[in-house]
Design goal:
By secondary structure, the chain is an all-alpha fold. It has three helices and no strands. The protein is elongated, with a radius of gyration of 24 Å.
Length: about 60
Amino acid sequence: METYTFLRAMADSWALLVLVLIFLGVIAFVFRPGSRRVQKDAAESIFRNESRPAAEDDENKEGR
C-alpha cells in the first residue's frame, strides 16, 4: 500500500505541474512573435486555389 500512496501523491502534484507547464508552453508557442504569418497562411489555405464561387446548379446536384 505504501507504493500506491507514493504514486498517488506523485500523480496529484507533479503530474499536475507537468501538464500546466505543457499547457503554458503550447500557449507561448502559439502566441510567439513571428507566428502570425504562419497562422494566417494556414487559415487561408483552403481559399488558395479558389477562382470563383460554386454555381447554384452544382450545389443542388451535390446536395441530393
